[in-house]
Amino acid sequence: MITTVENELATYGYLQRPVDPYLNLVEEIQALKREKNAVILAHYYQESEIQDLADYIGDSLGLSQEAARTDARMIVFAGVHFMAEVAKIICPDKKVVLPDLKAGCSLADSAPADAFRRFREQYPDHVVISYINCSAEVKALSDIICTSSNAEKIIRSVPPEKPIIFAPDKNLGKYLIKKTGRDMLLWNGSCMVHEIFSVEKITRLKMRYPDAKLIAHPECEEAVLSMADYIGSTTGLLNFVGRDTANTYIVATEAGILHQMEKHYPDKTFIPAPPENNCACNNCPHMKLNTLEKLYLCLKYEQPEIVLDEDLRQRAYRPLARMLEISAG
Ligand code: 13P
Ligand code: SF4
């Protein structure tokens, strides 16, 4: 029988419980974290107030490594569904909760498991490298997982005579083909946030700030990447700013990363790369579904929880473990 909680989670993605407007949510969350032996892992695209409460903030690789490392009883994942799912795949004995179950990812959605299975069956001799932004089902159909910070290393670990399928991000795939010289068969997926940056507006910004450097995430389109002074994962972008001598940066990725950039390097100026329309489309609508209230509720009620079929988890674990091994080496 389906319980009310299951219904509620299926409908809204989180428990709709009243939150006292006078509660100091920051203090409550800190107390609950201690009481429940929980750790908050957050991605750079989360709201600033959530980043400020996190025990660890990082890119997809750092977050997976931190999940593997923590001895907390519960992981509260302030990120999107595939990230929390990775934490559960790596740590089956821990409780993993996500503030909003509906925090998905357009890139992960662009590779439905059934279509991906049919595609891979056509190329049985190919090694399948999947970007971590995909479902557990797609991971289970892959040989090795990669993130934007270790993709080059993972590709180079495959013997040169072996043909490769790279999925699901075609922009990252094209960038890696250029970088490694390796011809790969690409799945036609993309991220809704990284596809909307305007080359024309970035060009105008560069004219206005001639000393500014353009730094970009490799999920951006080729036209933006070809103008960039540096390309890297979110952590890569943050670290680059730290060691680089410029004072101004045009940042072509989700705008949440600016919070850590401004916090770490208050003397530098960061300009979010402008999207095509006059919208806030450089904010990931999935990441931004998580709020402080939902974070509080999920810590308090330990819901919504990531639950995975054990057989699927084991099949998805193999290519992830391979990634962690290659990254560590
Ligand atoms: P990073 O691994 O570089 O943080 O990227 C995650 C992501 O979802 C980018 O859109
Ligand atoms: Fe997915 Fe793009 Fe959001 Fe990253 S920014 S979580 S790739 S939709």
UniProtKB/TrEMBL annotation:
<feature type="binding site">
    <location>
        <position position="60"/>
    </location>
    <ligand>
        <name>iminosuccinate</name>
    </ligand>
</feature>
<feature type="binding site">
    <location>
        <position position="43"/>
    </location>
    <ligand>
        <name>iminosuccinate</name>
    </ligand>
</feature>
<feature type="binding site">
    <location>
        <begin position="217"/>
        <end position="219"/>
    </location>
    <ligand>
        <name>iminosuccinate</name>
    </ligand>
</feature>
<feature type="binding site">
    <location>
        <position position="105"/>
    </location>
    <ligand>
        <name>[4Fe-4S] cluster</name>
    </ligand>
</feature>
<keyword id="KW-0662">Pyridine nucleotide biosynthesis</keyword>
<dbReference type="GO" id="GO:0005829">
    <property type="term" value="C:cytosol"/>
</dbReference>
<keyword id="KW-0479">Metal-binding</keyword>
<feature type="binding site">
    <location>
        <position position="234"/>
    </location>
    <ligand>
        <name>iminosuccinate</name>
    </ligand>
</feature>
<keyword id="KW-0963">Cytoplasm</keyword>
<dbReference type="InterPro" id="IPR003473">
    <property type="entry name" value="NadA"/>
</dbReference>
<feature type="binding site">
    <location>
        <begin position="131"/>
        <end position="133"/>
    </location>
    <ligand>
        <name>iminosuccinate</name>
    </ligand>
</feature>
<dbReference type="GO" id="GO:0008987">
    <property type="term" value="F:quinolinate synthetase A activity"/>
</dbReference>
<keyword id="KW-0808">Transferase</keyword>
<dbReference type="GO" id="GO:0034628">
    <property type="term" value="P:'de novo' NAD+ biosynthetic process from L-aspartate"/>
</dbReference>
<keyword id="KW-0411">Iron-sulfur</keyword>
<feature type="binding site">
    <location>
        <position position="148"/>
    </location>
    <ligand>
        <name>iminosuccinate</name>
    </ligand>
</feature>
<dbReference type="GO" id="GO:0051539">
    <property type="term" value="F:4 iron, 4 sulfur cluster binding"/>
</dbReference>
<feature type="binding site">
    <location>
        <position position="191"/>
    </location>
    <ligand>
        <name>[4Fe-4S] cluster</name>
    </ligand>
</feature>
<protein>
    <recommendedName>
        <fullName>Quinolinate synthase</fullName>
        <ecNumber>2.5.1.72</ecNumber>
    </recommendedName>
</protein>
<dbReference type="Pfam" id="PF02445">
    <property type="entry name" value="NadA"/>
</dbReference>
<comment type="pathway">
    <text>Cofactor biosynthesis; NAD(+) biosynthesis; quinolinate from iminoaspartate: step 1/1.</text>
</comment>
<dbReference type="InterPro" id="IPR023066">
    <property type="entry name" value="Quinolinate_synth_type2"/>
</dbReference>
<comment type="function">
    <text>Catalyzes the condensation of iminoaspartate with dihydroxyacetone phosphate to form quinolinate.</text>
</comment>
<feature type="binding site">
    <location>
        <position position="284"/>
    </location>
    <ligand>
        <name>[4Fe-4S] cluster</name>
    </ligand>
</feature>
<comment type="similarity">
    <text>Belongs to the quinolinate synthase family. Type 2 subfamily.</text>
</comment>
<dbReference type="GO" id="GO:0046872">
    <property type="term" value="F:metal ion binding"/>
</dbReference>
<keyword id="KW-0408">Iron</keyword>
<keyword id="KW-0004">4Fe-4S</keyword>
<dbReference type="InterPro" id="IPR036094">
    <property type="entry name" value="NadA_sf"/>
</dbReference>
